[in-house]
Design brief:
Elements lengths: L7 E5 L2 H8 L3 E8 L2 E8 L2 E7 L4 H15 L3 E10 L9 E9 L21 E2 L2 H19 L12 E8 L7 H13 L4 E5 L2 H11 L3 E9 L5 H27 L4
Parallel strand pairs: 1-4, 1-5, 5-10, 6-8, 8-9
Antiparallel strand pairs: 2-3, 3-4, 5-9, 6-7, 6-10
Length: about 260
């Protein structure tokens, strides 16, 4: 009796990040489903499905659900970029999520601000085991980066681990970023980075009982320069980071 292979879903936020992984895919097979291109194949001996999450919480939730319902994935890993909010989180750093909060969720006075209605919780935890592997992969990748083995590195780049905030807004002003960080901090949520999808995928993963972990490269400080920094950074840096971390992660993932 043969066991069902354990399939890893790799979600990318942007095309530039995904393309580097598609180029490495062994025996690639494309399936169009729910208006999305899903790429099946193998990376480092692991069966994977690659797909763009699309932008925003609803789109990301649809993608995650399709991965589970249509492709039967065993775990979900997300790569992307984010704006840095936490102290000491700089452009070129990486944040591996410990948990997620939806910063634009407010059903008060029916429920406390940021709490997800009917879940009784505000923050959704990333899977501990999967996150541990992702942290190990990020640190391993950054060792090579900091050793000068790649020409596109930030020499003092660091790997952080903590809370990510998601919302359906591209935070791109210094005042808005400060207000968001202060509001979350005051509510007991010391956020490191802000993006637009992770918390939604974490909620879907919880609903289905599926392990989920995420890593984000800091492309900007979610300030007045965010729109200027973003395109070049994704093209020249984040796509390489994502590929390096995912490759290390798949090497560490036990083969079944």
């Amino acid at each position: 009796m043969t066991s069902t292979p354990s399939i890893t879903a790799i979600l990318s936020a942007l095309h530039e990040e995904q393309q580097g992984l598609i180029d490495l895919l062994h025996k690639p097979q494309k399936t169009v489903h729910a208006g999305r291109d899903f790429w099946q194949g193998e990376l480092h001996g692991q069966p994977v499905v690659l797909v763009l999450s699309r932008i925003g919480k609803v789109a990301a939730a649809t993608t995650a659900t399709a991965l589970i319902e249509r492709f039967g994935v065993s775990r979900i890993v997300f790569t992307g970029v984010a704006g840095g909010l936490g102290h000491g989180v700089k452009v070129g750093d990486v944040v591996v999520a410990e948990d997620f909060v939806q910063h634009d969720m407010d059903s008060s006075p029916l429920f406390p601000r940021y709490e997800i209605p009917l879940y009784g919780q505000t923050r959704f935890k990333a899977d501990a085991a999967l996150t541990g592997l992702l942290l190990q992969a990020a640190n391993s990748a950054f060792k090579h980066i900091n050793d000068g083995e790649t020409p596109w590195a930030f020499p003092d780049a660091k790997v952080h681990h903590g809370l990510m905030a998601s919302g359906d807004r591209f935070v791109s002003g210094a005042q808005e970023a400060h207000q968001l960080q202060q509001a979350l901090q005051s509510a007991g949520h010391p956020v490191l980075a802000v993006e637009m999808e992770g918390a939604a995928i974490a909620q879907v993963a919880l609903d289905y009982g599926l392990p989920f972990a995420a890593v984000r490269t800091i492309s900007d400080r979610a300030d007045d320069q965010a729109h200027v920094d973003f395109p070049a950074f994704v093209r020249d840096v984040a796509s390489y980071y994502a590929r390096a971390v995912v490759e290390k992660f798949l090497e560490l993932l036990p083969k079944k």
